[in-house]
Amino acid sequence: MHLTNLEEKMLAGEEGYAVQKSMQILTALGEIFGADKMIPVSSVQVAGVSYYNLGDAGLEYLESLAGKGAKTRVKTTLNPAGMDLENWRELGIDEEFARKQEQVIEAFVKMGIIPSCTCTPYLVGNEPGRGDHIAWSESSAVTYANSILGAMTNREGGPSALAAAIAGRTPSYGMHIEENRKPQVRVKVDAKLAAVPDFGALGYVVGKKIGPKIPLFEGIEGVHVEQLKSLCASIATYGGTALFRTHDATYHQKEAPAETLTITRADIEGALRALNDEASEVDFVALGCPHCTLDEIKKIADLLEGRKVTREFWICTARQTMKETEKIGYAQKIRTAGAKFACDTCMAVAPLKGRFSVLATDSAKACYYGRGTNDFKTRIGSVEECVNAAVTGKWS
Amino acid sequence: MELVRGRKISGGSAEGLALVSHEPISFFGGVNPDSGVVTEKGHELEGTTVKDRVLIFPNGKGSTVGSYTLYRMKRNGVAPRAIINVECEPIVAVGAIISDIPALDRLEKNPLTLFQSGKRLKVDADRSLVEASD
User: Fold this and answer.
1) What domain range includes position A161?
2) Strands ordered across the beta sheet of A215-218
C-alpha cells in the first residue's frame, strides 16, 4: 500500500502513540483487504460503546488510549451506550454498571468524540453528503449512509472506526471504490408495503436470500425515512450488505443486474411469522430500533393520550430528539401515560437479560438482538399494536 | 530447522509452543479474558488455555469487541505469545496490534497441517518468518 510522507511519519510514531497504533491498525486492514492507499475521511461513527458489550477489556483499552493523548481529527459521533446517561435508575440499571458506563463515555469524550449515543447520527447532525468518504461502524447507519445519503463507507468495527477518527483516514477498498458499488441482484418488490414492520420484513427476507450482495430495489420508491431506516437495519442484520440501491435515490444508471428476485406479499407475511414467537402475554415493549424520529414519537404520544401503560415501555431515541419533543409537548404525554424514554441507549445494547421474557417491537433488528442476546421471545407489529400491548399486556 | 514465510499483520517476535485450532476462534464470548481458557461450547479447544502459546487458527469470528478481549488477555498475562492465521480478518488483526502480539497470516504452506500442537516455534513478524526447531 502506498503511504504519503505524512502517513509514513504517523506510522513511525512521530505524532505520538495513539496515532501510531491507529496507523498500524489501518495499514494492516489495508493489507488484508488489498487497499492501494489511504483516503481522508470527513466523518466517523464509533460503535462498541455499551459497557454490556465492551466489558472491562474495552474500558481498559479506551482509557489507556485516552490517557496517551488520543484525539480525533474529524467529526466523530458515538453509538448507543448501555443505559440512558441521565435517567438510568428509572430504567433499572444498577450502580456498578452505571459507573463503568460513565467511565467509557468519559474516555471517548476525552478523545474529542461527541457523545451523541445514537445509531441514527444522520438525524442529529452527523449527516455526510453524496460521495463523501467516511468511516462508520453500526451496520444500520452504514447501510443508510451508503444507500440513502450516497456517502461511502465500509462496515467498520468499533476499533477500526476509532482508529480512522484518530488518524483521520481509512484504507481505500470495498465501498470506497465506485466500481464495487454496482448492484448485483435486481429485487422486484411486488407487494404493497405499509407500516415499518413490513420494511423490516423486507430486509429480513432479502437479507436471508442474497446475503452480502448489493440489491437494486424496484417498487419501494417514495418511502419515508422511518421505513428506510428500518429496512437498512434489517437487511444489514440478516444479510450483511453495506449498500442497496433504488432507482430514485442514489442510483441513476439504467442497467440492471441479470439476477432477479421477486418479493411477494406472501414472502413478507412469511418473514413476519418467522419473527413472531408464540406468546400472548407481553412484559416489555420497546420502539426505536433504529432510534425513533420526531414523527415516530409524535405518533406514539398521540396513541398514548388518555391511556396508561401497564408494562415496561421504552421509547429509544437520541437525547437531542427527545429534547425537541419536550418543547412541543409529546414527551409530557408519553410520560403521563407511564411510558419511558430510553435516550442514549436501546433494547439491543442495554443489560436486559433475565429482566423480561417477551419483547414487543416494530423492528425486525430488535427481534434479532432480543432473541440472540437476551433470550426474549419476540412479537413484531405496528406501533399501534405495540402501544396496545403496553397498555393491556396482551398481544392480540 | 524449517523456515516458512508469511505476511506480517502485527510486528514483533516471540517464541513458544504451538497450539493448533482447526476451527475459527471468537475471542469475545469464546475465550475467558481472565484465564485465557477457551469456553465456547463444543469448540475443539474448549477447556484449553491459549496462554503463552503460538496460537494457530484459520481466522477470527464474532463481534469486533473481540479485539478488546485480546487486549485484556494481554494485560492479564494470559494472551498467546504470537498468532498465526490462515487468513487474518479485522478482529484478530486489530486485537493483535493494540496488544503488541506478533501476528502473521498467509504462510507459504497451510499452518494447520504444517504444525502440530506442542511444536516449538519462533515467530519473527517483523521479518514475516516462522521458524520451527527440529
Assistant:
1) 5-178
2) A245-246, A215-218, A185-190, A260-264
